[in-house]
Amino acid sequence: MNAERDAMATERDAMAAERDAMAAERDAMAAERAAMAAERDTANAERDSAIAQRDAVITENNNLTSRVSASEDMVMQIMASIESPAPAIPTPAIPT
Length: 96
Known about the structure:
mainly alpha, rod-shaped, single chain
């Protein structure tokens, strides 16, 4: 009777150890999934940062292009005014 009871206790202990091992495996898998999610989030944040930097460079480039274009237009207007003949200044008639 004692041997049978000891055998059952040993079997219960083995089953409990197996359950504990399975739980530990599940916990390890959950930790691995969490680590992968953290890596993904980090990669996404790095990508978003790179996109924001690219957008800032594009915006700055557009601003500089607009300023250059405005400067070129101003230079063209100045050149045109220098090259065009001066308007005739009317001389007032002198009463006689």
